[in-house]
């Protein structure tokens, strides 16, 4: 029995795959995205209250060890039987039980924990952020990723974002071309934007350590503020060496798969900044622990994304809003990269920030007709629902 709520039995766990086109090709060092697959999870209790969660990865298996399809099949086959009939309101107990029976599968666990937490917060009539200690801020700064692969197009895109007052922090995806070509591309963009925008790069592990030495010197000279994951995820010592030898801040992203990595990275002084992500951390509680380790080790924080749609983006935002400091802002722009809206009321992006809603749970309402129209298992061909 929960101290504030009667037990609520879990009746259904549904997993939907939604394929949503991106507004333009999104080029990363390891893949080019033309669509994103949202794995949506809806968990409904015997009181009729439903909670939503989401898992996403990037480019199938190109970025992480879970694919949208593996997330669905592993939830359906292994996780749902652990949940059905159990008390929906004991979120920590449910996640502990899953952890005892399911190794890995961080993204799947994140979607489940988010859905349970959303439903619990809705039953309590409080925003999801309240379950994690309450908000320190009501809006979050939002970076935009320039990843068209074309310098002139990226500059045009950045100018548009600045004019609309939507973003003034720009992350450039590099690593697919030579170090010199990539750094010339970045320098041209920084020259065009000047002090009007912060320019950062994400190499997504593409450089060797010696390439990173050269690249980081060129990037520092160009006025870039930060380099994200320049070298292989497993090379924590290498990150530390680069950090010692360069004046540009280093952010760990793919190296950081939850609290244990956070501890190890902090211990060897591998990074100035952690990109904390709810999916990579195995859920909201894991991401909160990453933030706590960062705070204890005086590592700065950045709210990262796995290019989630509206549900995962808002779940991340609800948690990140509880962080005491968020020195490098966030990149919770995922829904803006997609051509289709799945919410009845879109998220509010303005004045370079995402505003947090005040309603219970995630504080968002899905447009179920739009969700159904985008489902991979829909009966009718996809038509634009925008
Ligand atoms: O950070 C990553 O590596 C993943 C993701 C975040 C933004 C983006 O464009 O890609
Ligand atoms: Mn990254």
UniProtKB/TrEMBL annotation:
The organism's place on the tree of life at top rank: Bacteria
Pfam families cross-referenced by the UniProt entry: MR_MLE_C, MR_MLE_N
Cofactor: Mn(2+)
Boundaries of every Mandelate racemase/muconate lactonizing enzyme C-terminal domain copy: 152-249
Annotated keywords: Aromatic hydrocarbons catabolism, Isomerase, Manganese, Metal-binding
Keyword Zinc (UniProt): no
Known pathway: Aromatic compound metabolism
InterPro entries to which the protein is assigned, alphabetical: Chloromuconate_cycloisomerase, Enolase-like_C_sf, Enolase-like_N, Enolase_C-like, Mandel_Rmase/mucon_lact_enz_CS, Mandelate_racemase_C, Mandelate_racemase_N_dom
Listed NCBIfam families: mucon_cyclo
Similarity section: Belongs to the mandelate racemase/muconate lactonizing enzyme family.
PANTHER family per record: O-SUCCINYLBENZOATE SYNTHASE, O-SUCCINYLBENZOATE SYNTHASE-RELATED
UniProt-recorded name of the protein: Muconate/chloromuconate family cycloisomerase
Organism: Herbaspirillum huttiense subsp. lycopersici
Organism lineage: Bacteria, Pseudomonadati, Pseudomonadota, Betaproteobacteria, Burkholderiales
